[in-house]
Automatic annotation (TrEMBL):
This is Sulfurtransferase. It comes from the Bacteria. Keywords: Transferase. Residues 11-97 form the Rhodanese domain. Residues 81-100 are annotated as: Disordered. InterPro entries: GlpE_sulfurtransferase, Rhodanese-like_dom, Rhodanese-like_dom_sf, Thiosulphate_STrfase_CS. It comes from Microbacterium aerolatum. It holds the Pfam family Rhodanese. GO terms for molecular function: thiosulfate-cyanide sulfurtransferase activity. SMART domains: RHOD.
Amino acid sequence: MKSITTAELAAREDVPLIDVRERDEFAAGHVPGAVNIPMSEIGERLAELPAEAFDVICQAGGRSARVVQALETRGYDATNVEGGTGGWIAEGKPVEVPSA
């Protein structure tokens, strides 16, 4: 399984980012540009995944690692973000919070 750090994620450009946390977690704050497809819904939302390589993030890296492993078996080019959104926030990186 391919993995990157939050620092490597911050340096990436034009790579789609899928956030697999639940909707309420995503709404509380997420990496700018991330698209929310919760782990609990990903099986029925595979058509929404990018055709090209993409990154997968969760809160700490556990759920995203499981999702990446499952997607790899289906032929997707997915990379896990180690440390997740929690690590991103702890490092002081910018966060998007959707307006109500």
